[in-house]
Amino acid sequence: MLVFIRQTITVCVMSTTLKILEENPRKLVYFGSSDVDGERELRPILNAADECSISSFSSLKMIQSVDLPTFCHAVILDMRVSGEDAAEIIQWVGELQCPVALICLCEDYGQLQPYEGMLHLINDMVIADSLKEGELTLRITRALGSRRADLQRRQDQELLSGLLDNLPDSIYFKDRDSRFIRVNSAKANKHKKSPEAMVGKSDFDFFTQERARPAYEEEQKIMRTGEPVLGEVQKLTFDDGSVAWVNTSKLPLTDKFDRVIGTMGVSRDITAQKEGEKDQELLNELLDNIPDAIYFKDKASRFIRVNKAMVSNYGKEAKDLVGKTDFDLFAEEHAKQSFKDEREIMSTGKPVIGKIEKETLEDGSVGWVNTTKVPLHDTSGRIVGTMGISRNVTEQVNNEQKLEEVQRKLDEVN
C-alpha cells in the first residue's frame, strides 16, 4: 500500500510543478560547451514574440545543482558541442519524473546513433541548420505537450500498477481471444506464476475444460453484446484437481475509440465462505433429520438454537424457544438441576454423558430423557455456552419401573 501512496504523492508533486511553470514566462536551458552562448545560438531560431529566458549550462554538475522542474520548461541539448556529457544529460533529464522537455540539436541524425538505446528519453530531435526563424518555438511547444502526455501516461501506469499489486482480489485483462494481456500479483499467485509468465496464456492453460470452456464463451458473449457479468458466483476447477469458488465481475475492455478489444475482470475468492455454507447445510440436514432433541445454549443457559425434534417434543415454534431457558419449559425441580449441571460444565469444561433425567413439564406431564451435554466453544477455543442432545427414553424407563414393581410384588409373595 505504501507503493500506491508514494505514487499518488508523485502525481501531486507533478501537478504543483506544472502550476509553477504555467505561472511564469517560458524558460529554456541551453546545454553546450562553455564557450558557446545559448542566447546567441537559440534566439535567432525562436519566434520573435517569444519572450522566454535562456540560461546556459556547460556541465552536468551545473544542471544538477538546480531544481530543474521549477527552473525551466525545456532543456536544449546541443549535440554539436556538448561532448562527453551528452549521454549523462539525456539520462538525467529524460528519466526525471517531471514535465521538462528534452530537445536535441544535431548537425544530422547520425549524431544520435551512439545513443540509440536512449532515444525514448528524448522528446524531439532537430537538425539545427534546417530550422527556420520561429520554428524552434513550435518544436518546443510540441515537445512540451509530448513530454507531459508521456509523463501522464507513465504516472497513470504506475498508479494502476500500484493499485493492482496491492489489491487482494484477482484482476485480469484479456484480448479478443481471451488471452491474458495483464494480470495483477494476486491473480498470478493463485496459479503459482509470475504476472509476466501468464501473458499470452488463457484459462485453458490453468483450468479444466469444465471451467475454461464456459469462461471463454462467457467472455465472447460479453464482447459481442457489451453486457457485463456482475457478482456471479463461479466454481473454479484447476488442472491439479483442486476446487475454489469466486465472486466474479467481467466487463468489456474498450480502446479510446470505444471499440471492444477484450475483457477485464475481478474475482474475489469466497472458497472459505462457500465451505462454511456447505458445513452449515450439512449441520442443518443433521439437525432437521435426527430424532433426538438437540439444542445450543449461551452462557446464561438461554437457547440460541434448537432442532426440529426439540420443537416437536415441546409443541413450540423454534422462534418461541430461542432466548428462553429451562425455567420457561419445565418445573422448577428439573430446571434448577439442569442449570446447575450447565454451570458446572462451563466452569470445568467437563461434559455430562448419558445422564437419565426426569422432565416435568409446566402442564404436569412427566417424561424421561437420556442427556449428554458438552461445552460450546467459539473459534478461539473459549467456552461460550453448552450444547446437548436428549433422547426420549420415557417408554424404556416406564417399562423398567413396571418390571421393578412386578419384581417387588413377587418378592412379597415369596
The counted number of beta strands is: 15
Percent strand: 25-35%
Named CATH topology of the largest domain? Rossmann fold
Q: Mean pLDDT score, rounded?
A: 87
Q: What's the architecture of the largest domain, going by CATH?
A: 3-Layer(aba) Sandwich
Q: From the alpha carbons, calculate the radius of gyration and give it in angstroms.
A: 40 Å
**Biggest sheet overview:** 5 strands, parallel
The CATH class assignment of the largest domain is Alpha Beta
Structural class determined from secondary elements: alpha/beta
Outline type? rod-shaped
**Can you count the helices?**
14
Helix content: 40-55%
Describe the overall structure:
The protein has helices at about 1-20, 40, 60-65, 70, 85-95, 135-165, 185-190, 195-200, 210-225, 270-290, 310-315, 320, 330-350, 395-414; strands spanning about 25-30, 55, 75-80, 100-105, 125, 170-175, 180-185, 230-235, 245-255, 260-270, 295-300, 305, 350-360, 365-375, 385-390. By secondary structure, it is α/β, with parallel strands linked by helices. It folds into three domains: about 1-165, Rossmann fold; about 165-275, Beta-Lactamase; about 290-400, 2-Layer Sandwich (Beta-Lactamase), CATH 3.30.450.20. The chain has a five-stranded parallel sheet. A five-stranded antiparallel sheet has the order 7-6-10-9-8. A hairpin with a 5-residue loop joins strand 9 (about 245-255) and strand 10. Helix 1 (about 1-20) runs antiparallel to helix 6. The chain is rod-shaped and about 140 Å long.
